[in-house]
Amino acid sequence: MTLPPGIRLGAYEILNEIGVGGMGEVYRARDSRLSREVAIKVVRRDFADDPDRLARFEREARLLASLTHPHIATVYGLEQAGDVLFLVMELVAGATLADRLAEGPLPIGEALTIASQIGAAIETAHDRGIIHRDLKPSNIKLSPESGVKVLDFGLAKALSVDSAAQMVDQPTMSSGGTGEGTILGTAAYMSPEQARGKDVDKRTDIWAFGCVLYDMLTGRPAFAGPTLTDTLANILTRDPDWVALPERVPESISHLLRRCLQKDARRRVKDIGDARLEIDESLARVSDATAVFPSRAQPQAPKRAAGATTVLTVAIGSALITAGAVWALKPAPPALTRSIVQFTLPFGSAERLTGLDFPAIALSPAETHVAYVATLGGTQQLFVRPLSALVATPLPGTEGALAPFFSADSEWIGFFADNKLKKIRVNGGSARTIADAPIGFGASWAPDNTIVFAPSNSSALWRVSADGGTPTAVTQMHSDLGEFSHRWPELLPDGKTLLFTAGTAGSWDDADIVAQPLQGGERRTVIQGGTSPHYLLDGRLLYARSGTLFMASVDPKTGRVIAESTSVLSGVLQSSDGAAQLSLSRAGGLAYIHSGTRENASALLWVDRHGDIQPLAAPPRAYSSPRLSPDGRTIALTIAGDRDEIWSYTIAQNSLARLASEPGTAPMWSRDGGSVFFSASRRGPANLFSKRLETGVAEERLTSSGRSEVPYSISPDGRLLAFVTYDSTTGRDIRLLQLDDRQTRPWLVTIANETAPAFSPNGRVIAYVSDETGRNEVYVARVGDPERHVQVSREGGSEPVWRPDGGELFFRAGERMMAADVKADVTVDAPHTLFGGHFQTGLGGRPAYDVSRDGARFLMVQAREDNPSARELRVILGWAGTLPSPARGAATGR
Fold first, then answer.
1. Among 530, 441, 534, 526, which residue's Cα sits nearest to residue 486?
2. Least confident of 553-567, 618-632, 855-869
3. Picking from 419-433, 451-465, 829-843, 875-889, which range would have the lowest pLDDT averaged per residue?
4. Phi, psi at residue 57, to the nearest 5°?
5. Burial code of 793-826, b = ≥16 C-beta within 10 A, e = fewer?
6. DSSP letter string, 126-172
7. E strands, 418-496, where?
8. Percent of the chain residues topping a pLDDT of 70
9. pLDDT tens, 835-848?
10. Phi then psi for 257, rounded to 5 degrees?
């Protein structure tokens, strides 16, 4: 049965046929629920009509769906539409290894790199008791985004292939039917026990692995003959032509191949993990080990001498002189000459870069690794990628991570998560807590194991040992200058001088870059109008403004700028919180995210309860925090740019209008729809404001405090406003503002972090989020009795929003939209999933969605897929060598 393009199988729209195999046809399809492309393998009718075979197939499919690994093509599930039974699988881009081998043998380093990744995939499957049974080059994809992807794990068994005859007559996938060429392609990689029709175990995969590695090194199969009979005879009676191996193949690899291709399975390598370790050790000694797949045309990092951690070893620093009264930036000797190497590192097809309000990427000081924050399967976490590797690895234990940064020795990654400052080794392991940090607006790790960090968006800077301990204050905010936040610290290489961004009125492009001795002393404003400072080896200072990177020459004695700043790089992604998405190594290498042609562009969507999407006509903008007006006709939202601004979008008229002339964020409607409440900084921490929508009416300040405040919900009678504030002792707390007399009172203040309060439609209950169990969960409590709460979510939850009639409570759990029926004020049924998808998540607990008046549709925000900043990381090694020489001359008096 051939399915024409455009036909639908449930939620899947068929796009085109991509192959035919023993199982049936294979199609590329669009998943309308999750807005992604998938591969669909339609099960042959004779399989589906056999009850015993079908039951066995369903059991195996469930097992395969539980198998996850970066180098294994994921099985999403087994589904049925009418009388059509089909597997839904990850769609992997790129050529197969068979396509690559058609061009000839691979370089040794490339072959070993691919073999290592294949081995890692097989090792994971074997640990779950899954045997591939049909490993061959045509089942191995070389993805331009994620490296090796092994296809069709376990499908031979799932399809009840019980003999060699069936195996060779039913390849799992091919694009050219079942002619003898295809049969030989499968037969040439069969183990002797398979050829004899005997039972097989994991050692049959080790044999096939050896065949694949031999094929990559020599450019020809180890046992193929002119006919099927000849091929099977070669497998059973002959050895490979060992002379065909290139002379440069390490002896250890030659020995490994002989052990993998022992005809007696008892004498074969016992575990694929042993083979992979042998390959990895050999790979480190092979001169072309950094070779990449030809499909990924990108320059590579320069090779390093054995034991070297970086091309440059020149030390730089700053020195304090006259006992802390004057500071100085001391330039180092001129940097060594170095070649410039530029390349891009694409993110995996299933990864979504996130956490972009904070620095989301980090290049290690030794230029060995990059770390970044992304989501995979709904979980936001850290990924780390060696510059010599083809793919990144997610780091378990870093869920919810923000703002990664490396230790000075490049061995550790620091990050913020779960309201803590944490660290984890580059190669993984257990994450360790260092200190409390409710949000975390940047950190820097000094060579003496000191970390300087900003624990929140309205705090000064603190220091703590990377081994833990009690933090101590480093900076003090100057309220007389309008400062409300110190963030994005940068410790100079000697660990004695600190650069940071001091936020004042206006946007972060109006902020000051300040230098101060770490041990105390006079601070000096170096740059007026910039953010995200970085210090180069030779004393030059880099900073960001409006997505452009500038370089300033600084007098090492006075700290004054001695020449006008020069633009050195444009198109750097920069958030409205002043975070520039770039990272510099100590040797002058640069990693950054390009802003693209539509910086942070996203779309407004209606999503129904089944996950079907209907885009709104609103133009692409950097939308966040959308809130529907009480009549459902207008959306109040934040649009990020050089500054966050409050806008409205009228749905029927398809029109955008600015609601407030000054910066602001987190808008919320009054009950009559005639005003909006929002958070804004007016020469101090972000406080609460309101704005009548009548023309010419000025905004009104509602609170004046030294703490950051964000509005979330208003009571049905319009008298109480629930908002969240931050305290250095208790973290995030929920307070209530009495709108008639502007008095505030605490509602829920504990040592845990509480956020996202939402009044129920009847006004008797507040839903909120707390991390009292160690992770964020959704709770409900009566307004008059917040201590007696009921937990709603059980596996994590955030962003609660009520259905307008109060009959349901919605919340997010990763990428799933959840719903819980509400029977009485605090009697809530177990939640269930409505739909999933890659939609924007809320910052600081603010809901990134809203619900229509009838509860049938959800207003969501989704990043545009054509935004280049979400797809790749740009790296330029030796970048500092391309910059203008530091200027010398008299101070300008700036």
1. 441
2. 553-567
3. 875-889
4. -65, -40
5. beebbbbbbbbbebebbbbbbbbbbbbbebeebb
6. HHTT---S---GGGEEEETTTEEEE--TTHHHHTT--SHHHHHH--S
7. 420-425, 432-436, 443-445, 450-453, 462-465, 472-473, 485-491
8. 82
9. 988 888 887 678 99
10. -60, -40
**pLDDT, greater one: 888 or 264:** 264
Task: Give the domains, in start order, of the chain with CATH numbers.
Answer: 8-283 (1.10.510.10), 341-598+871-882 (2.120.10.30), 602-863 (2.120.10.30)
Cβ atoms of residues 689 and 678 within 8 Å: yes
Q: Catalytic site residue 134?
A: yes
Cβ neighbours for 869, distance < 8 A, ≥ 6 positions apart? 353, 356, 573, 581, 593, 594, 595, 596, 599, 600
Q: Which residue has the tokens 């979504």?
A: 352
Per DSSP, the three-state class of 289 is coil
H-helix or E-strand spanning residue 213: helix 202-218
> Please, are residues 563 and 890 in contact by the beta-carbon 8 Å criterion?
no
Q: With 70 as the cut, is the pLDDT of residue 639 above it?
A: yes
Strand partners for 857: 608
- How far is it, in rounded angstroms, from Cα 423 to Cα 436? 13
Instruction: Report d(CA 641, CA 639) in Å as an integer.
Output: 7
Residue 664, SS3 per DSSP: coil
What's the CA gap between 473 and 461, in Å, rounded? 6
Tokens for 228? 């099927």
Amino acid at 177: G
Q: Check 31, 49, 83, 134 and give the catalytic one.
A: 134
Within the chain, how many helices (H) and strands (E) appear? 12, 61
Distance from C-alpha of 361 to C-alpha of 363, rounded to nearest angstrom: 7
Encoded tokens for 243: 């002379």
